[in-house]
From TrEMBL:
Residues annotated as transmembrane: none
GO molecular function annotation: enzyme regulator activity
Highest taxon above the source species: Eukaryota
The keyword Transcription appears for this protein: no
Similarity section: Belongs to the proteasome subunit S1 family.
Keyword annotations of the record: Proteasome, Repeat
GO biological process, one term: regulation of protein catabolic process
Name listed for the protein in its UniProt record: 26S proteasome regulatory subunit RPN2 C-terminal domain-containing protein
Organism: Hemiselmis andersenii
Gene3D superfamilies: Leucine-rich Repeat Variant
GO cellular component: a single term: proteasome regulatory particle, base subcomplex
Matching InterPro entries: 26S_Psome_Rpn2, ARM-like, ARM-type_fold, Proteasome/cyclosome_rpt, RPN2_C
Region Disordered, residue ranges: 1-21, 549-632, 680-704
Length: 704
């Protein structure tokens, strides 16, 4: 199987030169092998995988509560919940939620099944040595045919596992594409997988395989092929590719294909700045709105992170002048990409657009702020987004919730009290029986982004040194296309980066050692796990309130224009009463009424308990935190981290963030090494004994 990076060529060279190696040459060969692994990114992938598996702190109760509070028959929220699980477990290899809910999962049919299978790839992102083993249940087997949806989803999953590090899997995926028997679903998955694994390789052969699929003019397969051609040629500015793709976009009748190709062309211009202007000009003037839409994304990719003024002016102009809502929405969204290195500017730039009469423009401005300010917890961003979660239009509320979660990802209640309110908001929207399904969809995914990757990752489109992270920018741009095609949401996993501090010795192993963070433990700690008992009471109350007040609610709605606010209040029941009392908020009176309607007393007791707990914590809490290697260090925390005095290891450079090389000051003593625990890191046997991942599902009853 195509395991290991570019294994074939290395092997040939080694065997040819084997007999004549001196010891010195052997040592050098090892050094070069190590360097190759470091430069190819393989070393860091393995280390990050270990970190995410070992430190996984997903709160399963949040997931089960989401699952429990949704209607069984709604396929949209079902899909969102399957996806939420994958986001919360991205890169951790933990799939307990799937194995525990097999029956529930089997409700996914057709493209939902495709999407659910691809989710397995998100959870195993980075298992580049065992990907075929991880996905073997679902991959196309010679002579056996399971559902094309799970086979296509599995090929897409392989791409997600190998995103941007695909040398070991490209051949497998190319063969799968050729042997797809022209099944559009399998082709769709294989194209997306190839695009991800062959990202930015500029590989002509791959490009031509994909072009064959594009020219067969099948809408579903062609959309993925157009996108994948762009991914393979990412940032190459290939004249030939752009000309072929543009000509085909004018020829085909399929909107899906035009959209795939339009985005593909935008990707080809990644990072090209002025070099992309000719194409941007051409696309922006096209009479087809889908190509103009592609033109906006070409500005986003070509000028991402530059803060370029003429790019911003152009996007703002289109945002208020284009006749197509889609193009206007894209133009505003793309401002977020251009401003990603100066996030503090973004809320100001879109503040007027956020009040536009056009809901598409308002939605675009939520995403722009979410993208530019991702992971910053910027107060201005939260202030702009919060009122938009109460917008009259469902998809604007969806965008506002997604953006809020991107901005506040990994922030803690202790540092930012808003986090608690936002969590409460998502929960109440998910529980609200009368809430629109679009907004619920947003709330479910937003809730999972706050806790993404086992609570150990953040979204960052730039590196710690301020350089652009190519795969993250591309992942975010394609994630935004979930609007048209939900399975593209999985590209979100490319934007996640582990927030870690991992020390390595000269053998690239993790020695046992501690770092010190000069902050109180609670400041950057994981959010506390949800407790079962506190949940039980309010849920019952919620139902009681909803059933008894449905009529009054309807009456209130006609009486008041602010019907929405009321609706939210009734639903937010006790949860918010707690938060508000602590803040001494203005809604006290209304909240008390709703609390008295049911279970007010219980809330009060819990409140006292919590306050008492906090007092105790404040008295005893030390002013430093000890972090053991591999440690979780949040972005805002890194400036407080030091190596304690008298430590056996000292870092080679003074940056304490990400992967750090350590110098051993007592090389003769025996070193204690951190055991590697990830089962999926080696093609392990453990995989086989685990309960099988969700079977290729066959569904008997009518779906829905």
């Amino acid at each position: 199987g195509g395991e290991g990076g570019g294994g074939d060529t290395d092997m040939k060279e080694a065997s040819a030169a084997a007999p004549v190696l001196t010891d010195e040459e052997k040592r050098q060969a090892q050094v070069f092998a190590k360097l190759r692994q470091i430069l190819s990114g393989e070393t860091s992938i393995g280390i990050h995988l270990e970190f995410l598996y070992r430190n996984n702190k997903t709160d399963m109760l949040i997931l089960n509560n989401i699952k429990g509070s949704l209607e069984v028959r709604n396929s949209v929220t079902h899909q969102a919940t399957v996806f939420a699980n994958a986001v919360m477990h991205t890169g951790t290899t933990v799939d307990t939620f799937i194995t525990e809910n097999l029956e529930w999962l089997k409700r996914a049919t057709n493209w939902a099944k495709f999407s659910a299978t691809a989710c397995v790839g998100m959870m195993h992102k980075g298992c580049i040595n065992s990907s075929l083993n991880v996905m073997k249940e679902y991959l196309p087997q010679p002579g056996m045919h399971s559902s094309p949806y799970s086979e296509g989803g599995a090929l897409y999953a392989l791409g997600l596992i190998h995103a941007h590090h695909g040398s070991g899997i490209l051949r497998y995926l190319s063969n799968a594409l050729r042997n797809s028997g022209n099944n559009e679903t399998i082709q769709h998955g294989a194209c997306l997988g190839l695009g991800l694994a062959g990202m930015a390789t500029g590989n002509e052969e791959l490009y031509e395989d994909l072009r064959v699929v594009l020219f067969s003019d099948n809408a579903v397969a062609g959309e993925a092929a157009g996108l994948a051609m762009g991914l393979v040629m990412l940032g190459t500015a290939s004249e030939k590719a752009v000309q072929e793709m543009l000509a085909y976009a004018h020829e085909t009748q399929h909107e899906k294909i035009i959209r795939g190709v339009a985005l593909g062309m935008a990707l080809i211009m990644y990072g090209r700045e002025e070099g992309a202007d000719t194409l941007i000009e051409q696309l922006s003037r096209d009479k087809d709105p889908i190509l103009r839409y592609g033109g906006m994304y070409a500005i986003a990719t070509a000028y991402s992170g530059t803060g370029n003024n003429s790019a911003i002016r152009r996007l703002l102009h289109v945002a208020v002048s284009d006749v197509s809502d889609d193009v206007r929405r894209a133009a505003v969204t793309c401002l977020g990409f251009v401003l990603t290195t100066i996030p503090e500017q973004c809320p100001r730039v879109v503040s007027l657009l956020a009040e536009s009469y056009n809901p598409h423009v308002r939605y675009g401005s939520t995403l722009a702020v979410g993208i530019a300010c991702a992971g910053t917890s910027l107060q201005e961003a939260v202030d702009l987004l919060e009122p938009m979660t109460k917008d009259a239009v469902d998809f604007v509320r969806q965008g506002a919730m997604l953006a809020l979660s991107m901005v506040l990802i990994q922030d803690t209640e202790v540092r930012n009290p808003k986090v608690k309110e936002v969590r409460g908001l998502f929960e109440s929207v998910i529980r609200d029986k009368h809430e629109d399904v679009m907004a619920k969809f947003g709330a479910i995914i937003a809730a999972s982004i706050l806790d993404a990757g086992g609570r150990n990752v953040t979204i960052s489109l730039t590196t710690k040194a301020g350089h652009k992270r190519m795969s993250a920018i591309v992942g975010m741009a394609i994630f935004c296309q979930y609007w048209y095609w939900f399975p593209l949401a999985h590209f979100l996993s490319l934007t996640f980066t582990p927030t870690c501090l991992i020390g390595l010795n000269k053998d690239l192993k993790m020695p046992q050692m501690d770092f010190t963070s000069n902050t109180r433990p609670s400041l950057f700690d994981y959010p506390p796990m949800t407790e079962v008992k506190t949940k039980a009471a309010p849920t019952k109350v919620a139902q009681a309130i909803l059933s008894t007040t449905a009529k009054t609610q309807a009456r209130k709605k006609t009486e008041k224009k602010e019907g929405e606010v009321d609706k939210m209040e009734v639903v937010k029941e006790g949860e918010e009463a707690k938060a508000e009392e602590k803040k001494g908020g203005g809604k006290d009176e209304e909240m008390k009424d709703s609390a008295q309607e049911g279970g007010g007393k219980k809330e009060g007791e819990e409140d006292k308990k919590e306050e008492a707990g906090e007092d105790k914590r404040d008295k005893k809490e030390p002013n430093f935190t000890t972090l053991s290697n591999p440690a979780r260090v949040l972005t805002a925390q890194k400036k407080h981290v030091v190596v304690p005095a008298g430590c056996r290891y000292e870092p080679v450079s003074n940056k304490l963030w990400g992967v750090v090389m350590l110098k051993d000051l007592r090389p003769d003593d025996e070193a204690q090494i951190v055991e590697v625990t990830v089962p999926a890191n080696a093609p392990a046997e453990k995989e086989a004994d685990e309960p099988p991942p969700p079977e290729p599902f066959e569904y008997t009853e009518a779906a829905e």
